[in-house]
Specification:
alpha+beta, globular
């Protein structure tokens, strides 16, 4: 299985977080507003994987839909 490269960037001025994935099919990006960053952190801490999936699908539905199950699991593992 090919690993998905995951990069997370947080803007210190705005609090906006960006999850950037380099997949076999290209680059995907999820931009999270500060409240979504906090929500994501809370879900990861509590192990709410379904909540993480729902949040990512809301933030960027097209990118979320293009992720394979393996890529999604790697993303969650990397950011968790």
């Amino acid at each position: 299985m090919e690993e998905t490269a995951v990069q997370y960037e947080l803007c210190p001025e705005t609090g906006i977080g960006s999850l950037i994935l380099e997949t076999k099919d290209g680059r995907l990006k999820f931009d999270l507003m500060p409240d979504e960053v906090d929500e994501l952190r809370g879900m990861l801490k509590s192990g709410d994987i379904e909540g993480v999936k729902e949040l990512l699908s809301t933030v960027n539905p097209g990118a979320y839909d293009s992720l394979s199950d393996a890529e999604l699991q790697n993303l969650i593992r990397e950011i968790g």
